[in-house]
Specification:
Length: 288
């Protein structure tokens, strides 16, 4: 389970009152065995590891923003090494990376029409930089998993295809996020088919189509405004049918983490109740 339903890194006012201890305790109580890392988590690996062990929880990964298209590679590498070593000490095997150069996901710009388009030079800087980061991850027997994301230069299925085609499969893997693909108008199952051998991390996120089509699209909302309106929710609460996805993941013998992630306003969508709803749905739908 991702902590973003309890406390939002991009919108810290959402869930400001929720503590780290409440977050991981409710995750564990809802039946989850792992989590990703949010802004309220202790940065001391020993303190964090102890708190998780008490609740029989593990760290699956944590987000890392790259700026390979807009800043010198060395700046990203320095921060990446510290992030890598932090996650390695906690036992994580994958590092979630997402290119934030020219990203509009935190800006007040229409997310459905304002996607940045990388130049050929920017694509080259991105792919070469990711391969170098992937090699650094391998030094610790870890892997980077690329997170396509609304409002960034790698958002659509076509963007993912290009990224996968222009990077080495030995050093750059893929994070499949169901919610972001559906939001962008793409089919997660097709992306899974096309890049099954590259997928090493999965975010299970549902979408409320009525919010997307009746509020986000006609009002040209920004990404963060779409989140506040409730465009995302947990599996089993929106319109995505996850059964075919689970079947396809089973066919390819997927063995990585399945992470429930749904950024919502916790004052409106009680995170513990939604965690229970997601866990029940996954048990019924995937027998996991």
């Amino acid at each position: 389970m991702a902590p973003i339903g309890w406390t939002n890194d991009d919108l810290p006012e959402l869930g400001a009152q929720n503590t780290f201890e409440q977050c991981i305790s409710e995750m564990a109580l809802a039946g989850f065995s792992g989590c990703e890392i949010g802004n309220k988590y202790p940065r001391d690996p020993k303190l964090l590891g102890h708190a998780l062990t008490l609740r029989k929880m593990e760290i699956a990964s944590a987000w890392f923003s790259t700026f390979l298209t807009t800043a010198p590679y060395e700046e990203t590498e320095k921060d990446f090494l510290a992030h890598r070593d932090f996650l390695n000490e906690l036992g994580a095997k994958v590092i979630v990376v997402s290119e934030q150069g020219r990203s509009i996901q935190k800006r007040n710009e229409p997310v459905l029409t304002g996607q940045p388009i990388f130049s050929t030079r920017e694509w080259k800087r991105l792919t070469e930089g990711l391969e170098r980061l992937g090699q650094l991850a391998q030094e610790k027997q870890m892997a980077i998993v690329y997170h396509h994301h609304m409002g960034t230069g790698v958002q659509t299925a076509a963007d993912i295809h290009r990224l996968m085609a222009e990077t080495n499969p030995d050093t750059v893997s893929l994070l499949l996020d169901t919610g972001h693909l559906v939001f962008s108008g793409d089919d997660p199952i097709q992306v899974l088919h096309d890049h099954a051998h590259r997928i090493r991390h999965v975010h299970l996120k549902d979408v409320r189509f009525d919010v997307l089509e009746q509020q986000v699209r006609p009002n040209q909302l920004s990404f963060l405004d779409a989140v506040k309106k409730g465009v995302f929710t947990v599996p089993g609460d929106g319109e995505i049918n996850f059964a075919p996805l689970f079947e396809e993941l089973a066919k390819i013998s997927y063995s990585g983490w399945l992470v429930v992630e749904a950024e919502q306003d916790p004052a409106i969508a009680n995170p513990f109740e939604y965690a229970l709803k997601a866990r029940k749905y996954i048990q019924e739908c995937a027998n996991l």
